[in-house]
Amino acid sequence: DSGVTQTPKHLITATGQRVTLRCSPRSGDLSVYWYQQSLDQGLQFLIQYYNGEERAKGNILERFSAQQFPDLHSELNLSSLELGDSALYFCASSPGTAFYGYTFGSGTRLTVV
Amino acid sequence: DQQVKQNSPSLSVQEGRISILNCDYTNSMFDYFLWYKKYPAEGPTFLISISSIKDKNEDGRFTVFLNKSAKHLSLHIVPSQPGDSAVYFCAASAAGAGSYQLTFGKGTKLSVIP
């Protein structure tokens, strides 16, 4: 158990729908990062939050949004889903004050049918 | 535009021998490099890292080498064990950007044969 909790582990939904992925960071970590891993692709950075505020944005589609709440958990919202959004979505956390690498959760596998 | 490249999708090594995984990068702003290991159905696990001010970092059986002039890094595993069989991701960060977002390669699947 890495200490980073992601729910749900699996999600199957139809095109056009909206889903919410949830992440609870490791205790004490202030930064949360979201990554997407599509088939045959490396992990692609989507967005980072630090202590409730957006810190950096990567290749995140306009149909996707995220937020970090006062208790530091984060949610990634994916809307108007397309087949190509099927992927593994990973959340990671770090202390935020120094960088020694992230701790990743086990991911949410999203399948859009 | 792939800024971090792992050109070998897979590698097979005999147990007890050395495994060498390679990674190339193009962005000269990268100043921190990491290797992650990933087993199926699990998230990536941090393995070892190296700052751009060093050219070598060692942790037990794992050593990472950095050649800044060639923009190349490698991970050596000696001796290789069956439990090392996993996908290995190289990642890089431009920490000076203040975000610590990582740019990952596509991974190399290592198979250690008993």
Protein architecture, described:
The complex is a heterodimer of chains A (113) and B (114). Helices cover 0% and strands 51% of the residues of chain A. With 113 residues, chain A is mainly beta. In chain A, the strands form two sheets. In chain A, strands 2, 4, 5, 6, 9, 10 and 11 form a seven-stranded mixed beta sheet that branches. Chain A has a four-stranded antiparallel beta sheet with strand order 1-3-8-7, with no helix packed on it. Chain B is mainly β. Helix content of chain B is 0%, strand content 53%. Chain B is built from no helices and eleven strands. In chain B, strands 2, 4, 5, 9, 10 and 11 form a six-stranded mixed beta sheet that branches. A five-stranded antiparallel beta sheet of chain B has the order 1-3-8-7-6, with no helix packed on it. The radius of gyration of chain B is 14 Å and the shape is globular. The interface between A and B is medium-sized, with 27 and 27 residues.
Largest interface: A-B, 27 and 27 residues
In terms of quaternary structure, what is this? heterodimer
Task: Write the H/E string of chain A, N to C.
Answer: EEEEEEEEEEE
How many extended strands of chain B? 11
Mean pLDDT of chain A: 92
Poorly predicted residue ranges of chain B: none
- DSSP helix count of chain B? 0
Class derived from helix and strand content of chain A: mainly beta
Shape of chain B: globular
How would the blueprint of this fold be written?
The complex is a heterodimer of chains A (113) and B (114).
Chain A: E1 5-7, E2 10-13, E3 19-24, E4 31-37, E5 43-50, E6 53-57, E7 64-68, E8 74-78, E9 87-94, E10 103-104, E11 108-112
Parallel strand pairs in A: 2-11
Antiparallel strand pairs in A: 1-3, 3-8, 4-5, 4-9, 5-6, 7-8, 9-10, 9-11
Chain B: E1 4-5, E2 10-14, E3 19-25, E4 32-38, E5 45-51, E6 56-59, E7 62-67, E8 72-77, E9 86-93, E10 103-104, E11 108-113
Parallel strand pairs in B: 2-11
Antiparallel strand pairs in B: 1-3, 3-8, 4-5, 4-9, 6-7, 7-8, 9-10, 9-11
